[in-house]
TrEMBL record, chains A, B:
SUPFAM superfamilies: Winged helix' DNA-binding domain
One Pfam family, short name: HTH_5
InterPro entries: ArsR-like_HTH, HTH_ArsR_DNA-bd_dom, HTH_MetalResp_TranReg, WH-like_DNA-bd_sf, WH_DNA-bd_sf
Ranges for domain HTH arsR-type: 8-103
Transcription regulation among keywords: yes
Keywords in alphabetical order: DNA-binding, Transcription, Transcription regulation
Descriptive protein name: ArsR family transcriptional regulator
Entry keyword annotation includes Phosphoprotein: no
A GO term, aspect molecular function: DNA-binding transcription factor activity
Amino acid sequence: MGVTKSQIFDKEQNELAQLFKVLGHPARIAILQYISTQNACICNDIVEEIGLAQATVSQHLKELKSLGLLQGEIEGKKMCYCINLEVWNDIQLRLNSFFITTKTNCC
Amino acid sequence: MGVTKSQIFDKEQNELAQLFKVLGHPARIAILQYISTQNACICNDIVEEIGLAQATVSQHLKELKSLGLLQGEIEGKKMCYCINLEVWNDIQLRLNSFFITTKTNCC
DNA sequence: AATTAATATCGTAATATTGCGATATTAAGA
DNA sequence: TCTTAATATCGCAATATTACGATATTAATT
């Protein structure tokens, strides 16, 4: 037990859930919001801003990267992260389309 | 360890994350989609449709109810669930506004 | 009153997530 | 070359989530 039974759901359902899931942590919301406040890209300031250990922040960044939502660019020994706007818009559209499609008449 | 450190994030970040989190499971996506295909409200058909144990489905329904997303109406010994359209639209707007606000110029 | 059907809740096992210290790794700078 | 700074990854502990059987609960039906 304890495993999500992905097999019994279809691709769309699993993908949608995965998108929502990655966005379902306040640290990851905070990271995205913080990056968006900076005109230029960010690096280790994220760690200081967020207030979690460096290892933890790195892990959250990894999950955001897994959606393609963040791009990282190496600048010497620093990493510069930014939001991939194309993916961002894609995801927004996808979630919206879920919301629109799933509207229903109530009781 | 293992506890999400909600204290270090603000109300908005925690609430947004919570919304995303509840939607971040394929069974809950499937439940919402299934309810939306029925004109009238649904009951225990959900259990049969989803293919998870009754107890598990009931738990997922509870989480959706925790957002106010589902309304349950008692009809004899059956429960009739439907999507609360007002809350549905609210959440859609809220997530959209997050997506719009968090747009940013990239690297 | 007893039975049955529909649902919720409890308890628990399996697994996943969160968070962090310790440890790589890599590149700039002394 | 040695040091330092920035980041990623590993390993683990604490907690949360997922799933389900068993057991309530409640209302219709017999």
